[in-house]
Specification:
Length: 58
């Protein structure tokens, strides 16, 4: 999974996003991954919806 984060950070940097935005995006993805217990490429649309509902109710 470490490789995924490195690739993501590189893509965010190439997109010209600021450092704080990069950190916020990475943190958001990490929370989703922690919730689902899977790598990002294995997370389903239904799991993302469940995560959003979870976040709204926290």
């Amino acid at each position: 999974m470490h490789d995924y984060y490195e690739k993501s950070m590189r893509a965010l940097q190439l997109a010209g996003l600021g450092e704080s935005t990069q950190k916020a995006y990475t943190r958001a993805v990490r929370k989703l991954v922690d919730y689902c217990g899977k790598t990002p490429d294995k997370i389903t649309e239904e799991e993302i919806e469940a995560y959003f509902l979870h976040r709204r109710n926290v």
